[in-house]
Design goal:
Homing Intron 3 (I-Ppo) Encoded Endonuclease, Chain A, binds zinc ion, two-stranded antiparallel ribbon, 3 domains
């Protein structure tokens, strides 16, 4: 006789590690997958969790992060109480806080905003960026090492067509390119409280770089990161002092 694991595996359409794994077997009336265990029907995502992590205490529910009821990817599941379960679904809460426009328009987030102007929504007790949640609701789970970025440069926008995924490196450079990084946000150069280097330092840094010093070595000398050195050398910082430096 086939084991539960074998019967489970034979009916799951497994995809990428972070994607939804869809249950191809029977469904409950409310749309969850179901499987027979010891003569009784059980919801299959709960079985998926137990096969991966072990038995679930009776008083706990197994819930989806991804809003795909048929999904049995254990990474998309978490345990919660009945109270968590009965809260409005994430999709409903999300929809109630956006102003949906035409396909190509920015869809503005009408809920809470972060200090940097991005929409925020609480998901399983943690504040998350609304645009990131927008992406996940439409295209699926985003792994932790990726950022969700705007093509349209409107932080409050949650139109999935205006979003794309990039690395943290892309995010930093995207912010610099759009002038949104902290050090270029309000004031530039010496007037800015966070500046660790003077205009003369910046000039010296470029001179050292031109003389063949490594960015890392320069960073150590001035007590700043290699990334900052790189940005100084690329004139991304001290832009308003350029004429004085030339
Ligand atoms: Zn899923
Ligand atoms: Zn937009």
């Amino acid at each position: 006789m086939k084991s539960l694991q074998e019967r489970f595996d034979s009916k799951v359409e497994m995809r990428g590690i972070d994607e939804c794994w869809l249950w191809m077997g029977g469904l409950t009336a409310s749309g969850y997958g179901q499987i027979r265990v010891n003569g009784r029907n059980q919801v299959v995502h709960r079985v998926a969790w137990e096969l991966e992590y072990g038995p679930i205490r009776n008083e706990l529910c197994c819930l989806h992060r991804c809003d795909t009821l048929r999904c049995v990817n254990p990474r998309h599941l978490f345990l919660g109480t009945r109270h968590t379960k009965n809260k409005k679904s994430l999709r409903e809460r999300f929809r109630s806080k956006i102003r949906i426009g035409d396909e190509d328009e920015c869809w503005l987030w009408m809920g809470a905003l972060s200090t940097t102007g991005y929409g925020q929504i609480r998901v399983n007790g943690c504040l998350q960026f609304a645009h990131r949640v927008a992406w996940e609701l439409v295209y699926g789970f985003i792994s932790d090492d990726l950022c969700c970025l705007h093509r349209c440069d409107t932080p409050r926008c949650v139109n999935p067509r205006h979003l794309f995924l990039g690395t943290h490196y892309d995010n930093t450079h995207d912010m610099i390119a759009k002038g949104r990084a902290n050090y270029t946000n309000s004031a530039k150069g010496e007037k800015h409280g966070m500046a660790k280097i003077t205009a003369a330092d910046a000039k010296m840094i470029r001179t050292l770089r031109a003389a063949g010093w490594l960015q890392r070595e320069i960073g150590v000398k001035f007590g700043i990161s290699q990334v900052t050195v790189s940005m100084i050398c690329l004139n991304k910082i001290w832009v308003d002092n350029l004429s004085a430096l030339r």
